[in-house]
Design a protein that fits this description.
The complex is a heterodimer of chains A (621) and B (264).
Chain A: H1 9-33, H2 42-61, H3 65-71, H4 99-128, H5 138-172, H6 181-199, H7 217-220, H8 224-252, H9 265-297, H10 310-327, H11 330-344, H12 351-364, H13 383-392, H14 394-408, H15 417-440, H16 442-448, H17 452-482, H18 488-514, H19 529-559, E1 591-592, E2 607-608, H20 617-620
Chain B: H1 4-23, H2 35-66, H3 84-118, E1 123-130, E2 133-138, E3 143-144, E4 152-154, E5 159-165, E6 170-174, E7 179-183, E8 189-193, E9 199-201, E10 204-205, E11 228-231, H4 233-263
Parallel strand pairs in B: 1-5, 4-11
Antiparallel strand pairs in B: 1-2, 2-3, 5-8, 6-7, 6-10, 9-11
Classes of the chains: A mainly alpha (621), B alpha+beta (264).
Chain lengths: 621, 264
């Protein structure tokens, strides 16, 4: 009985409906008092119910308990760590303030969403397997492709990097936790709310305007479109809060001696990414608020009938959504630097260039948004500067690729699964980068934009890029998180199947696009029949290969060989701790005495962890 | 191991890849004056892409082969943190390549703009996208075709399309012309093209526009969207005359109908 009063998922079962019901009641009362008709406006009531229900869920899970106690003047113990750390698997389903627990919550939850988004892709690939329409109606098809994009971007790719960063970054900089542990937990718990909001839109006909949700098509869609707009706002709020947390943590909580140029490159990458998130994400939230007001409150930001402008939506949307591409790849670049240096036993080649190129990408990333709009009928003069900035952003990206090659050269390469994914990433990402350079050039872009060439390009960047880095990171830190080793043979199978079949899925799409197959269609001309069949078969095998990974992770976490504190002999701080690391990480504050990648230097150390805490720590900082 | 010979080998391997990509390129037929320039850009892209890809992959494979750890190999790698001149080189070379891309892109853009401005004659066609089809108005000839009619154009005469939409965003894409432009409600987007080959070509809506989007593609076997027809000048004139004739007949019969209606 007490379970429904304590901060648990059980409490959410009544707080979320109670908040939703209260909001409906207030709205109905207000509508009848002001004589609005109809009083029971379905979409209005659903919207307030979703918003209030989401808040109710965060209340139920315990997101506001501490602040609520403080507000009503209750007893608070600043040293109360009862919500910190996981002592049983049940603790992973609770509001937890431990960055390592939150990291695992993020990673597992977002990976489940990756499987869901992947299932959507398998369903519409089965529709595309042969010409004609067999499996899905147009409506269902449009709904599934839209869900696939939104789930993959907003509740998998952006937050999974927040999860990896959450686990690793405080360890890497020698901190006990993130700067704002409670905000951190709230950020995570916003994600299930966002995912529920997005996925439950299937009950209302789903949103079907693609992941971009452009008006004026979005004005025609069913109620699912409002849930898309709400869901993105929720995921965006989570993303912004996490980024603020990362910024403060990285800037203010580094161990003594860890200057900016002694930070591991994953930390650099997350610093750049977090700055991007904080500056860019409010734009998409704003765009979705305005689009939602148009739908639900009768405003006219983008409605043509009310002198609104649909082009403005595209500008605001891409002002976030292009930087979002870097939000989804910069932390991956950071992972690759860690993985390659550690497994090649060699310092990262051109550390400063790699670090600054992250910053360069983050800054230039704001000046390229309109390359998504070359055929939109935007101001013609804008095409040339945007083309130039888009081409220029290839340079910092190229610097990274060459630096990783330079890092491998002359190393002693341990061909672990983590390293295989890093090497495979370079191969596939180069293809995505080169097609990106092509697409930057306006006349070429205009000739094939919105075709399968675009689909090929961004899947090479996001699957061949981001997802390969995510897998590399998963394998690399698995022994740290679980204390056990994964199965290398299964890992290798997973890598080769992923690598071969992702290329078989996405490479032919370039040619389909060039030959005139538009994206987001449920049927196609007969000439594309055999290539689509090939792609669909490859997509099914690619999907199935994920099961090997899932089995490997679950089985190895319980039965794998113990790996010890530092199976890869890494030099960065997280490897100086036991696996898994103890609660509050370091027993005493570590002191950083050198760069993070001093491989090949006799007896070199990045940091030392003193036996006893020196009394003078405060004054030396 | 010497690196420079390997770079040269990478260039050679890459050049082979480039040649393969260029020889095996599959593009729709070129049916506009603009298509050639764009295809040349594409060939240029394939040229440098193959070489860069060749160099990167060769180094990747050689590194994996040559620097692979043997079992129980506890050696460490070389303690090299960077070579400044090399980093400068691999910053400058990509810079030069992307600037070449920019120049190529600018030349093609500029020649299109110059042609468009120099144009004194040519067809002017208003295109209205709607869910789910196209409607064409020939402004020079004052012909207003019905919805879902065939777009007929004279060969070697430039056309300016003024695109707009009645409802949601559509995109007017004729792959054989290497041309695409959105038809956006509330604004008029202009794009010009000069068809150079007589024949029929696919018109595809490239922008998700609702449940009928898939069907807005003349390449589908049972599509209701007619393909564009490019015909000789003489055929076009005959077609124009017939359209005017049909319109006049339709108007007079409509007038007769309404006259008959008023008698009743």
């Amino acid at each position: 009985m007490t379970a429904v009063l304590k901060p648990t998922l059980a409490r959410c079962l009544w707080t979320a409906p109670a908040f939703a019901a209260l909001a409906i009641l207030i709205t109905v009362a207000a509508r009848s008092i002001f004589g609005m008709s109809p009083v029971l406006q379905e979409s209005t009531l659903l919207t307030v119910a979703y918003i209030a229900g989401g808040i109710g869920f965060i209340v139920g899970i315990g997101g506001f308990d501490y602040w609520w106690t403080w507000m009503r003047g209750g007893e608070l113990d600043p040293n109360d760590h009862s919500q910190h750390g996981a002592h049983s698997w049940g603790d992973y389903f609770k509001f937890n303030t431990d960055h390592k627990v939150i990291g695992i919550q993020y990673i597992v939850f977002t990976f489940v969403m990756f499987l869901v988004g992947g299932m959507f892709a398998e369903v519409f690939r089965s529709e595309l397997a042969k010409p004609g329409q067999q499996v899905l109606t147009d409506q269902q098809y449009n709904g599934l492709i839209s869900q696939h994009g939104v789930i993959m971007i907003f509740v998998f790719m952006v937050p999974v990097f927040a999860g990896i960063g959450n686990y690793v970054i405080p360890l890497m900089i020698g901190a006990a936790d993130m700067a704002f542990p409670r905000l951190n937990a709230v950020s995570f718990w916003l994600l299930p709310v966002a995912a529920f909001t997005l996925l439950s839109s299937f009950m209302f006909g789903s949103f079907d305007g693609g992941w971009t949700g452009y008006p004026t098509l979005s004005e025609q869609s069913g109620y699912g479109m409002t849930l898309y707009q709400l869901g993105i706002q929720l995921a965006g709020a989570s993303s912004i809060a996490t980024a603020v947390n990362f910024l403060v943590t990285i800037i203010a909580m580094r161990a003594p001696g860890m200057t900016l140029f002694r930070m591991p490159l994953l930390v650099w990458a997350n610093l750049a990414t977090s700055a991007l998130v904080v500056a860019a994400t409010p734009f998409i939230a704003g765009a979705q608020f305005m689009a939602m007001f148009d739908r639900e409150m009768g405003t006219h930001f983008f409605t043509v009938a009310g002198n609104g402008d649909t082009l403005v939506y595209q500008h605001i949307f891409w002002f976030y959504s292009h930087p979002a591409v870097y939000i989804m790849i910069l932390p991956g670049f950071g992972i690759i630097s860690e993985v390659i240096a550690t497994h090649a036993r060699k310092p990262v080649f051109g550390y400063r260039a790699v670090a600054f190129s992250s910053a360069g990408i983050a800054i230039l990333g704001f000046a390229v948004w309109a390359h998504h709009m070359f055929a939109s009928g935007m101001e013609p003069w804008l095409r040339v500067p945007i083309m130039l900035s888009t081409l220029l952003i290839a340079i910092p990206t190229g610097i990274k690729i060459f630096s990783w090659l330079g890092t491998m050269w002359g190393g002693v390469l341990r061909m672990t699964t983590a390293n295989l994914f890093a090497i495979g990433f370079i191969f596939t990402f180069v293809i995505g980068g080169l097609s990106g350079v092509m697409l930057a050039v306006v006349p070429f872009d205009v000739s094939i934009t919105n075709s399968y060439f675009i689909v090929a390009h961004f899947h090479y960047v996001l699957f061949g890029g981001s997802i390969m880095t995510i897998y590399a990171g998963f394998y690399h830190w698995f022994p740290k998180v679980t204390g056990r080793m994964y199965n290398e043979i299964l890992g290798r199978w997973h890598f080769w199947l992923t690598f071969i079949f992702s290329n078989l899925v996405f490479f032919p799409m370039h040619y389909q696009g060039l030959l005139g197959m538009p994206r987001r269609v449920a049927d196609y001309a007969p000439e594309f029949a055999w290539s689509n069949t090939l792609i669909s078969i490859a997509a099914f095998i690619l999907g199935a290969s994920t099961l090997i990974f899932v089995y490997n992770m679950i089985h190895s976490a319980r039965h794998g060989k113990t790996g010890g504190a530092n199976p890869w002999r890494g030099l960065t701080l997280e490897w100086m701790l036991s696996s898994p690391p103890p609660i509050f990480n370091f027993p005493t504050t570590p002191r950083v005495i050198g760069g993070p990648y001093r491989y090949g230097e006799e007896g070199a150390k990045h940091a030392i962890v003193p036996e006893v805490e020196p009394a003078t720590v405060e004054t030396t900082v | 191991m010497k690196v420079l010979p390997l770079v040269l080998l990478g260039v050679v391997v890459g050049a082979v890849i480039s040649v393969l990509l260029i020889v095996l390129r599959t593009l729709p037929v070129q049916a506009s004056a603009e298509a050639d320039d764009i295809d040349n850009l594409y060939i240029f892209f394939l040229g440098f892409s193959g070489i860069i890809f060749g160099i990167v992959v060769l180094f990747l494979l050689v590194a994996v082969y040559r620097f692979r750890a043997r079992p129980n190999d506890e050696r460490e790698g070389d303690n090299i943190h960077g070579i400044t001149w090399l980093e400068v080189v691999w910053t400058v070379i990509p810079f030069v390549i992307v600037m070449l891309c920019a120049i190529g892109g600018l030349i093609v853009l500029r020649s299109g703009d110059v042609e468009a401005q120099a144009r004194t004659s040519g067809q002017q066609i208003h295109v209205l996208g709607y869910q789910f089809g196209w409607k064409y108005d020939y402004l020079n000839q004052e012909i207003n075709l019905r919805e879902q009619s065939t777009l007929v154009l004279p060969v070697n005469e430039s056309v300016i399309f003024e695109l707009t939409s009645a409802d949601v965003i559509h995109s007017f894409w004729v792959p054989a012309w290497r041309m695409q432009m959105n038809a956006t409600p509330g604004q008029t987007n202009e794009v010009s093209i000069t068809p150079t080959k007589i024949g029929t070509y696919e018109i595809i809506c490239a922008f998700l526009c609702g449940v009928g989007h898939t069907g807005m593609n003349s390449a589908l076997p049972d599509s209701i969207i007619p393909k564009v027809q490019v015909v000789s000048k003489a055929d076009f004139d005959a077609w124009v005359a017939k359209q005017k004739d049909d319109a006049a007949k339709a108007a007079s019969s409509a007038a007769a109908d309404s006259a008959a209606g008023s008698v009743d």
